[in-house]
């Protein structure tokens, strides 16, 4: 199992243990973690699963694809160097734990 | 309205529109009861992946789990009474109650119809054979997915979004695919001719036999009740051990009609999404409304339409936003294999089209102009153009056809100068 820590904008924390191969978006939506919408179902089409990945995990993440890059420019909350779309980041091999901060809003 | 603990909003339909409405009502501070009634057995789930990622899962026969719309914990935390496998069978408008298929009766202060749409079924000889599927519900997707490991020849009826999404997914699994489309180009209802024709070529390159100008005439069986071939209106016979019918949907208006509500290509609502009964609203795939951008009554079938209408209605019902017409910009997407199609706005036959980018690279957009102003933009593997177009169209701004076609024109920067946000 892989561990995902979601830090909410208000200070609450959700910690999930999920199957390897699960995206941050699917993990959040399936487990009722507020603050991640995933309106397009994981197609990198809606930019409503924006997360800020904690510094120490950034190097272990897959490269940002062109499509994700374009959509990250369109998130509601400001994009930073730590911004990713939760549907494009999958835990498992090489990333058995990850911690992210959630933006205040997604839509 | 002032909401009190005695208020109960009943939502019939627990798809994208119904669930978003419940979520947004709570987010807006509604404290009364919220009951969602859905006739499907499954817990509320997302439909869009069913014709895409879901079909790609090769999991030794087990049906993949759908992506839920919200987790069960969310429904519990938000005190949402979510009933599955139960249908609303009737509305008593005078008594402000609905009857459910399990015999229970629910009182409502406001009723919201989010009943969605149902697949149209082919009405030709042989349509009752086994192996002819639609693709809308989880049950549909499970039935199709179960067959994909063994199917060799699939015939798709209708080159719309669903049919072509399925075709691409089936090709990726090595299945021979024939698509029959009565019109002279795919996705003709939704797309301009240049984009549509580009997709026709792209699907042929994936190995799909796209037969344009050919509709379905009949199906023939194998003698044991299973479909074996599709016969087209041109008289050709195509072997088929699976048929996927993607010939559109009809809005589910039967409850509204039985209750005497106005129906006009869907449950007719005004710009505030209210039906002809002031205590009953309708939204999403089942409702037709005065569409601000088209200047006409329209019914749209999309996630954006469902969720944006739900957010709007939650604001109206709780009085948390100033009352006003629903006027969000429509946008759509489709994923067909590696091809990402995104549409902002509503194109129409006769629009002047302007190409941005080189279609041979597989990344381009088509800008559609009407009466000299930008009306819609279709983007292929070009999300930056799409997002810029959404900003411009939502703000009612345009750009010249010359600017749109100029690769050196900085569309993103131009769109960002629009002072309003994307809206939602």
Automatic annotation (TrEMBL), chain A:
Q: Which cofactor does it need?
A: [2Fe-2S] cluster
Domain (2Fe-2S ferredoxin-type): residue spans on this chain: 2-106
The protein depicted here goes by the name 2Fe-2S iron-sulfur cluster-binding protein
Into which family does the record put it? Belongs to the adrenodoxin/putidaredoxin family.
Sorted alphabetically, which CDD domains does this protein's record hold? Answer: fer2
Q: Cross-referenced SUPFAM superfamilies, in alphabetical order?
A: 2Fe-2S ferredoxin-like
Q: Supply the source organism for this entry.
A: Arthrobacter hankyongi
One short Pfam name that applies is Fer2
InterPro entries assigned to the protein according to its UniProt record, in alphabetical order: 2Fe-2S_ferredoxin-like_sf, 2Fe-2S_ferredoxin-type, Adrenodoxin-like, Adrenodoxin_Fe-S_BS, Beta-grasp_dom_sf
Q: Name the keywords, alphabetized.
A: 2Fe-2S, Iron, Iron-sulfur, Metal-binding
UniProtKB/TrEMBL annotation, chain B:
Q: Where is the Reductase C-terminal domain?
A: 331-414
Pfam families per UniProt: Pyr_redox_2, Reductase_C
**Keywords annotated in UniProt:** FAD, Flavoprotein, Oxidoreductase
- List the PANTHER family hit by this protein, alphabetically: APOPTOSIS-INDUCING FACTOR 1 (PTHR43557), RIESKE DOMAIN-CONTAINING PROTEIN-RELATED (PTHR43557:SF2)
Name its co-factor(s).
FAD
**The protein's name in its UniProt record:** FAD-dependent oxidoreductase
Q: Which domain of life is it from?
A: Bacteria
Q: Which residues form the FAD/NAD(P)-binding domain?
A: 8-310
Task: List the coiled-coil residues.
Answer: none
Q: Does the keyword Oxidoreductase apply?
A: yes
């Amino acid at each position: 199992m892989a561990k995902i820590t979601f830090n909410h904008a208000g200070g609450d924390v959700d910690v999930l243990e999920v199957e390897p191969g699960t995206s941050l978006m699917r993990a959040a939506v399936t487990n009722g973690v507020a603050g991640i919408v995933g309106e397009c179902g994981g197609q990198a089409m809606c930019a409503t699963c924006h997360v800020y990945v904690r510094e120490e995990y950034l190097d272990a993440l897959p490269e940002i694809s062109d499509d994700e890059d374009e959509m990250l420019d369109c998130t509601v909350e400001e994009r930073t160097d730590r911004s990713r779309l939760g549907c494009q980041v999958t835990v498992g091999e090489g990333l058995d734990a990850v911690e992210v901060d959630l933006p205040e809003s997604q839509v | 309205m002032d909401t009190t603990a005695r208020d109960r909003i009943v939502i019939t339909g627990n798809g994208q529109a119904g669930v978003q409405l419940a979520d947004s009502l709570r987010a807006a501070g509604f404290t009364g009861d919220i009951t969602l009634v859905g006739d499907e057995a499954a817990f509320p789930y997302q439909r869009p992946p069913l014709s895409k990622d879901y079909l790609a899962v090769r999991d030794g026969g087990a049906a993949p789990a759908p992506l839920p719309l919200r987790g069960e914990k969310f429904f519990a935390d938000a005190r949402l009474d979510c009933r599955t496998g139960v249908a609303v069978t009737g509305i008593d408008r005078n008594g402000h109650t609905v009857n459910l298929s399990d015999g229970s009766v629910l009182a409502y202060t406001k009723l919201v119809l989010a009943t969605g749409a149902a697949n149209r079924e082919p009405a030709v000889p042989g349509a009752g054979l086994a192996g002819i599927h639609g693709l809308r519900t989880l049950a549909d997707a499970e039935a199709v997915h179960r067959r994909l490991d063994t199917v060799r020849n699939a015939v798709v009826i209708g080159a719309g979004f669903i049919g072509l999404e399925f075709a691409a997914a089936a090709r990726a699994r090595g299945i021979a695919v024939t698509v029959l489309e009565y019109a002279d180009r795919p996705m003709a209802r939704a797309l301009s001719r240049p984009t549509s024709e580009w997709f026709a070529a792209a699907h042929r390159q994936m190995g799909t036999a796209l037969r344009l100008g050919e509709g379905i005439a009949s199906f023939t069986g194998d003698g044991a009740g299973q479909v074996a071939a599709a016969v087209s209106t041109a008289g050709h016979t195509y072997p088929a051990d699976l048929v996927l019918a993607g010939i559109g949907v009809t809005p589910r208006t039967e409850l509204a009609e039985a209750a005497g509500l106005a129906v006009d290509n869907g449950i007719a609502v005004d710009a505030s999404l209210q039906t002809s009964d002031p205590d009953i609203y309708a939204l999403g795939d089942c409702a037709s409304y005065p569409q601000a951008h088209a200047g006409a009554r329209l019914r749209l079938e999309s996630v954006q339409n469902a969720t944006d209408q739900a957010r709007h209605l939650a604001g109206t019902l709780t009085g948390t936003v100033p009352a006003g017409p629903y006027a969000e910009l429509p946008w759509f997407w489709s994923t067909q294999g590696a091809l990402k199609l995104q549409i902002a706005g509503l194109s129409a036959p006769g629009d002047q089209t302007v190409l941005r980018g080189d279609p041979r690279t597989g990344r381009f957009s088509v800008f559609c102009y009407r009466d000299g102003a930008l009306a819609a933009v279709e983007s292929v593997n070009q999300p930056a153009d799409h997002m810029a177009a959404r900003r411009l169209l939502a703000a009612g701004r345009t750009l010249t056809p010359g600017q749109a076609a100029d690769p050196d024109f900085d569309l993103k920067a131009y769109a960002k100068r629009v002072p309003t946000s994307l809206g939602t």
